[in-house]
Amino acid sequence: MSARDTEPLAIEALNLTKIYGSGNTEVVALNDVTVRVARGEVVALLGPSGAGKSTLLTAVGLINPPTRGRIWIGGELVLEADRARVDLRVFRRRHLGFVFQKANLIPFLSAEENVRIAMEINDVPAREARRRARELLDYLGVGARATNLPAMLSGGQQQRVAVARALANRPSLVLADEPTAALDSQRGRQVMELFRQVAHEQGAGVLVVTHDHRSLDVFDRTLEMEDGVLREGQAAS
Amino acid sequence: MNLAVRDIRQNFGRFALTTVGVGLLLMIVMGMGGIYRGLIADATLLVEAVGADLWLVQGATRGPFAEISRVPATLEDRARSVPGVAAARRFVSHTVQRAFRGRPLRMVVQGLAWPEDAGDWIPLAAGRALRHAHYEMVADRSLGLPLGTEVPLGKDLYRVVGLTQGMVGSGGDGMAFFTVSDAQAIQFDVPGEATRLERASRRARVGGRDLGRLNPLLLERSAGATAEIPALGPPQVSAVMVSLQPGLAAGSVMDTFAAWTDVTVYTRRQQIDLLLSGMVDKARRQLGLFRALLVIISTIIMALIIYTLTLDKIHDIALLKLIGARNRVIIGLILQQALLIGALGYGLAYWLGTFAFPRFPRRVVIEPPDLLLLAGVVAAISVVASLIGIAKALSVEPNKVLS
Ligand SMILES: Nc1ncnc2c1ncn2[C@@H]1O[C@H](COP(=O)(O)OP(=O)(O)OP(=O)(O)O)[C@@H](O)[C@H]1O
Ligand SMILES: [Mg+2]
């Protein structure tokens, strides 16, 4: 067995059920879903539209509590059904990084400030935050656009800034919901490879919802969802 | 990192427009307070400036400012005979509205008890005090009469020999100082025909009584000038102003005057209170009501703008929550913007006021305590205005980012 079995998992979510609405309009978006992502592992989440992928991602992202089930992050029980076991907002800023399909950035802040704000609200000293923001933007190839507002960046550049922000606090878990949907396939692939790099180099667990079957080889594992039910896909590599 | 300022930079136009609007409203609020202070200053200006210790007015009236008062000029001499009285002067004051060079000339005609009082106490901005018993005047600048102007009033011409600055009556009309006899000549000036008719009727009245029939001289006099028959028509003045001997308590002198049942006596303080409680009070309440309304309107406008600014960035606020920002960060963002609008609006109001207020037709007095109070009010309305924005921001769910 590998070292991963003794280390706490990045996510361990057991028997998640999410029911939207009630009565006639009831939708079971997650149906007894169990998912585990190890540290250093990059996992793709596939499935048709309406399968419940975003619901799962936001549930384990602690912004959309499930109706039933329990979630551990980094070995800590954080949610039991919709009852928080920790201060979710504090937990999010310390341990989670998010990237979404679009509109990830605060429009009135420059690229660098968008990255810095994530660290400042996590009480990183301003000087250190500035240094790390520059470093991350350089690393993601958008260092030259650090002072630009998001509106002045291309879609791909914006996504890379969002990735930089997601990584700023060295999260133990990165969640991305169709982060490459707005990008051409080449840019999309770059972002996916970046996630892989982050997972492997920084030891973060990464869970990415994607429709892009061409870059599946980047992932360690794929999960497939349909009608709120999760099943293990074939190993990508 | 200050989010409020960075957001404003992005929404500068709307923010600036709101600030200007709030600033203009606050300028009016400030101006109304200043107008009220100005009313008080104008109303009490003369009473303070002439410096009389006691005022003797017609019995049971609250004159001579709040209502008409008539006392005989001889009251002056009676007052002088009271121990403790240093000086007594007659007070003649009335407002006239005449035409001069085709424009209405409205002024408070103020009689000086010449020769004892040449108006040396009047703060002059230019020229000199009165030096002759007749046909000279000291006018306030607001009347627009330069030095040397000759103004026809009644049947005579009066030359402006001195100018004052800001000497206005309680109605805001500029004052003009004359000798008492000139002031009365202006007041009692009637056309020749009216004089002729009055004399004829007077003669008829006197002739109809045995007094007139028995005394032909009286009959003859009654047909002459009013000034020559003091016994029939004693010159009336508005009030008599009494100055006390230095270091003397007003009490005993007051008691003496209070025992005179034909007149009523007021101290300077009482006279000022009469002016303020009677004439200024309604204006004060009216202005106060307007100020309160404008403060409420400013609050509503600010609240609306802050709310829409907040709605505009509700997605960003949800994103901030999603990445774990504390409520303090989000409240700070909104509150700081409201306070900034308030503070800049206030500064703008003050700055605009320095240009606008001197051009107001009536005196505007801006005093530091009032400014401080308004600053407090502005801070309070900024906080109140941001409340609904803050409530909205705090209620948004972080997963709103996704929709
Ligand atoms: N807020 C909501 N209220 C009610 N139903 C919802 C809500 N959010 C999602 N659903 C329903 O839950 C189901 C799963 O939605 P979800 O957004 O998780 O799907 P998805 O797999 O992310 O789809 P897509 O690929 O189109 O993004 C859908 O049937 C959707 O209609
Ligand atoms: Mg989705």
Oligomeric nature of the chains: heterodimer
* Number of DSSP helical runs of chain B: 12
First-residue to last-residue Cα separation of chain B = 27 Å
What binds here, in terms of ligands, is: adenosine-5'-triphosphate, magnesium ion
What share of the residues of chain B lie within helices? 40-55%
Report strand % of chain B.
15-25%
Structural class of chain B: alpha+beta
SS summary, helix count of chain A: 6
Query: Which shape of chain B, going by the Cα principal axes?
Result: elongated
Unreliable stretches of chain A: none
CATH class category name of chain A: Alpha Beta
- Percent strand of chain A equals 25-35%
Order of helices and strands of chain A: EEEHEEEHEHHHEHEEE
- The ordered string of helix (H) and strand (E) elements of chain B is HHEEHEEEEEEEHHHHEEHEHHHH
Keywords summarizing the entry:
heterodimer, A: about 240 residues, alpha/beta, Rossmann fold, B: about 400 residues, ten-stranded mixed sheet, two-stranded antiparallel ribbon, 12 helices, binds adenosine-5'-triphosphate
Q: What this model shows, in words?
A:
- The complex is a heterodimer of chains A (237) and B (403).
- Chain A is of the alpha/beta class and 237 residues long.
- Chain A is 30% helix and 27% strand.
- Chain A has six helices and eleven strands.
- Chain A has helices spanning 53-60, 88-95, 111-120, 126-139, 155-167, 185-202; strands at residues 11-20, 27-37, 42-46, 68-73, 76-80, 83-84, 96-99, 173-177, 205-209, 221-226, 229-232.
- Chain A is globular, with a radius of gyration of 17 Å.
- By secondary structure, chain B is of the alpha+beta class.
- Chain B has a domain at 3-43 and 281-402.
- Chain B is built from twelve helices and twelve strands.
- Chain B has helices at residues 3-10, 12-50, 75-80, 180-187, 192-207, 210-214, 216-222, 250-258, 268-312, 314-322, 327-356, 368-395, and strands at residues 54-58, 71-72, 85-100, 103-112, 124-127, 136-140, 150-153, 156-164, 175-179, 236-237, 239-244, 263-267.
- In chain B, the strands form two sheets. In chain B, strands 1, 3, 4, 5, 6, 7, 8, 9, 11 and 12 form a ten-stranded mixed β-sheet that branches. Chain B has a two-stranded antiparallel ribbon with strand order 2-10.
- The longest helix of chain B has 45 residues, at 268-312.
- Chain B starts with a helix and ends in an 8-residue tail after the last helix.
- The mean pLDDT of chain B is 86.
- The interface between A and B is medium-sized, with 30 and 24 residues.
- The site of adenosine-5'-triphosphate (ATP) has 12 residues of chain A, from strand 2 and helix 1.
